[in-house]
Structures are given as structure tokens and as C-alpha cells.
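Support request from a user on the community tier.

User writes: "When I paste my C-alpha cells into the form, the page sometimes reloads and wipes my input. The last time it worked, I copied everything first. Here is what I submitted, just in case something in the input itself triggers the reload:"
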């Protein structure tokens, strides 16, 4: 039975995606968030299950994080110079399927008896292999293929929502179920190294399968009628990107959102213990915090269709600003914390879903300006900034606590400590949401996107006819 022909979106741009395509595309996020989630949870495994010192663990993970950020730029250049007949992005999903399986398992197969430099080397190299090599070689093409797969903003937005939902699911499984599942797999209900390896095997196998499906179902359809991009010299590509105002907006927006993510993921425990007076409340706060996430995933799609990408983001930021402002007035009220506190969390969901769509539009604007999408460098430089921001966000809390002379053994929080916690929990996210509103309000490319794409198409046809 022949498939029903696909129509055009509200801008008149031909659609190329079906429901199965969205599901296959989202599978790539399972592999990426599977790796990042396990790396994020590996500190406990190292210290409590393998016996690695906390200092060695911290130093190794920090060094790997720095290397991870810089390899994004290298991968972007490699991808831009790719000559495979299968495309620039698509081949990497198949190439990385088996390495992803190996990398995930290797994180947990720390050889018994290793110590000192040998142990540090194993931890460092397996983290580098998983994050700086395998994850990066998936993430850069995966971010870029959105612009190669379809020209429709509507379809790109839907891809972003499917990706965010898939990533959130595997992220929550690891965050919530890793400990109880590994305990169940371990002897006498207590997880051991073998239990973690079993869990890693399952995640690794599923990641490899999803990457193969992604390769099989993905197509660089939107690039077929266009001339292939010529690889630009590294510094030339960076210079052109910073002259593209829309790409700069995406870069800065991702920086601020990633800082908010990093701060919010760490600040809750300090807030519950020192402001609300009971660190057990973090469980309630975490459970209630799921509400804006599910609501956000449900409404971003309809909102984007009705209002467009920019207005959807701005509405989310306004909602977040209102919630953060209420918390400023009632900072120590538990009810306000778990109600008004939901609004800033909701504000970040549209950006989680639509950040890739924004970047794809900025890449199209590269083509409009320069006749070259600069796809790999556009995606990698944005990812580089996001990783640096994520590390910065986590460090900000430590710096602020040090500045207010935080003492974890104290019985009560000093005034300075309380305002320090208010600072990274309330004031900083409020300020960043206001800045995000101002920045994203200038992302007006949607108004001229259809005519811009028509001009690019006409220019390509004229060049092809010469």
C-alpha cells in the first residue's frame, strides 16, 4: 500500500518526515543521554563500589570534561570535510554503534588490583573514549543532521520535541532507577561491580541498536538539491559564525540555559537543608519538579505551531521570570518553593526542545550569507560553549559557597550563607531568564525564513545551470 504523500508546512516548505522517522531520529538521543547519564552517575560507582578516592575521581572527571569540550571543535571540522557518498552526518551513526557499546561497558569494567597512575589512566582513558570521542562523534553529526533532514521549521521543532522526550526518559531511568536496579542485580540486594556492568551492557546494546536504526532511517534529504559545502579553514569558519547574529544568539542562549541547568541540578539539596530546614524535602521537590517537565513536553509542540519558535521561547521565559520573582519575595516558604519554583523549571523546557531548531535556522542563515552552511563547525562550536557553561555552572556554586565561608558542619546557616544560597538558587536564574528574554527577542529569522530559503534555492539552481 502506497504511503500518503506528505504535504507542506504553514510556510509552504515541503515536509519529509513521518512518525516513524521522528521515532528513529529520537533514538540517537538515547545513546547520547545514556553515555552522559552514566558518566554523571559514575562518581558514586568509583568511590563506593570500586574504592577510588574522591580526589582522584574529581581530578579525572574534570580533566576528561576539559578534553571533551575541545574535541567538539575538532569533530566539527572533520565532519565539514567529510566526503562520504552517504552524506556528512549519517555515516557517523553506523560508525559509532559498536564503539558506543564498548565505551559504555568499559566505564564500569575497572580492572581489580589497579592503583595509582594505572588506575587514574584507566579512568581517564575510558571517560575520554566515552565522552570526548564516541559521544562527540555522535553528537555533532546528530545536531547537524536536523538541518540536512528537512527544511521545515515545523518538522525540525517536532524532531526537537521527540529528541528531548527520549533524552529525558533515559536520563530519568539512570537518575532514578540505576541504584535500585543494580541493587536488585547484586548479591543480597546490594549492588557490586558486576551488577553495574550488567546494567551497562543493557544500555550499551540498546544504544548500538538505536544508532543502527537512526542510520537506516535517516536521510540528508534537504541537502540533496544543494551544492555540497566546501570545508573552510578553521579560523575562517569561526570568523564567519561570529558575523552571523542568529548563530551568536543561539550560542549565548545555550550558554545561559546550560548554566541554569547545572545550577538547578545541584542547588536543591543546599536549599532544602539550609533554607527549608530539612534535606529530606529534596525528594518531594524532585517529584513535584517532574510536573513542569511533562507539561512542557505536552505543550511545546502546539505552542510552536501557533506562535512560532521565538514567541514560544519568550512566553516560557516570561513564565519563568514571574515564578522566580515570586520566590524572591517569599524565599523561605516551602509551598512557594514547590509551586512558584515550578515556573522557572518550565521556562527551560521550550529551549530544551527548540534549541536544535534555532541552531538549524542559524545554519541556513550561514548558507544565505556565505553560500556555505558551515554545518559541522556551527554545531560543534555551540556544543563546545554548552559544555563549558555546564562546567562553569557547577563551579559557580562552589565559588559562591567559598565566598560566604560555608561550613557543612554548622548547625545553622549564617546570613551570608543564606544569601549565597538565595543567590545561586533564585537571583542568578532570575537574572539569566531576563537576559535570555532580551537575547531571544532578537531571533526574528522566522519572519523572513520562507523568502530566505526561496532565495537560496534560486541561487543554487542558477549556479547549477551555469
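"...and here is what came back when it finally went through:"
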Amino acid at each position: 500500500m502506497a504511503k500518503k504523500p506528505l504535504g507542506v508546512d504553514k510556510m509552504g516548505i515541503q515536509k519529509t518526515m513521518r512518525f516513524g522517522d521522528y521515532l528513529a531520529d529520537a533514538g540517537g538521543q538515547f545513546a547520547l543521554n545514556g553515555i552522559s547519564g552514566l558518566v554523571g552517575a559514575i562518581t558514586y560507582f568509583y568511590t563506593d563500589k570500586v574504592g577510588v578516592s574522591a580526589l582522584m575521581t574529581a581530578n579525572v572527571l574534570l580533566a576528561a570534561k576539559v578534553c571533551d569540550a575541545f574535541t567538539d571543535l575538532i569533530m566539527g571540522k572533520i565532519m565539514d570535510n567529510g566526503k562520504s557518498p552517504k552524506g556528512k552526518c549519517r555515516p557517523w551513526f553506523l560508525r559509532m554503534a559498536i564503539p558506543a557499546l564498548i565505551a559504555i561497558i568499559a566505564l564500569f569494567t575497572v580492572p581489580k588490583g589497579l592503583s595509582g597512575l594505572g588506575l587514574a589512566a584507566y579512568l581517564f582513558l575510558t571517560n575520554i573514549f566515552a565522552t570526548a570521542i564516541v559521544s562527540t562523534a555522535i553528537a555533532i553529526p546528530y545536531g547537524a543532521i536536523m538541518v540536512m533532514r528537512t527544511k521545515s521549521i515545523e518538522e525540525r521543532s517536532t524532531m526537537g520535541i521527540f529528541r528531548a522526550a527520549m533524552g529525558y526518559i533515559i536520563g530519568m531511568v539512570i537518575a532514578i532507577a540505576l541504584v535500585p536496579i543494580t541493587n536488585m542485580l547484586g548479591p543480597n540486594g546490594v549492588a557490586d561491580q558486576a551488577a553495574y556492568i550488567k546494567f551497562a551492557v543493557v544500555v550499551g546494546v540498546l544504544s548500538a541498536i538505536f544508532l543502527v536504526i537512526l542510520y537506516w532511517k535517516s536521510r540528508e534529504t534537504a541537502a540533496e538539491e544543494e551544492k555540497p559545502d566546501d570545508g573552510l579553514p578553521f579560523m575562517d569558519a569561526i570568523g564567519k559564525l561570529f558575523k552571523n547574529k542568529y548563530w551568536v544568539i543561539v550560542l549565548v542562549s545555550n550558554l545561559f540555559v546550560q548554566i541554569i541547568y547545572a545550577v538547578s541540578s545541584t542547588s536543591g539539596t543546599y536549599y532544602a537543608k539550609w533554607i527549608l530546614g530539612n534535606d529530606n524535602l529534596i525528594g518531594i521537590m524532585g517529584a513535584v519538579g517532574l510536573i513542569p517537565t511533562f507539561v512542557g513536553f505536552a505543550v511545546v509542540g502546539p505552542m510552536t505551531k501557533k506562535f512560532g519558535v521565538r514567541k514560544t521561547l519568550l512566553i516560557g521565559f516570561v513564565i519563568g521570570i514571574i515564578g522566580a520573582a515570586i520566590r524572591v519575595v517569599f524565599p523561605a516558604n516551602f509551598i512557594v518553593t514547590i509551586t512558584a519554583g515550578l515556573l522557572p523549571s518550565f521556562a527551560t523546557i521550550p529551549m530544551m526542545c527548540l534549541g536544535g531548531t534555532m541552531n538549524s535556522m542559524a545554519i541556513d542563515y550561514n548558507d544565505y550569507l556565505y553560500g556555505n552552511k558551515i554545518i559541522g563547525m556551527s554545531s560543534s562550536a555551540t556544543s563546545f560553549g554548552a559544555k563549558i557553561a555546564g562546567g562553569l555552572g557547577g563551579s559557580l556554586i562552589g565559588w559562591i559557597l567559598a565566598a560566604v565561608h560555608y561550613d557543612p558542619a554548622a548547625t545553622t546557616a549564617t546570613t551570608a550563607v543564606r544569601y549565597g544560597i538565595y543567590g545561586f538558587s533564585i537571583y542568578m536564574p532570575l537574572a539569566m531568564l531576563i537576559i535570555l528574554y532580551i537575547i531571544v527577542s532578537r531571533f526574528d529569522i522566522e519572519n523572513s525564513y520562507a523568502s530566505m530559503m526561496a532565495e537560496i534555492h534560486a541561487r543554487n539552481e542558477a549556479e547549477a545551470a551555469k
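Agent notes: The reload is a front-end session timeout and is unrelated to the input. The chain is about 75% helix and 0% strand. The two ends are 41 Å apart (CA to CA). Escalated to web team.
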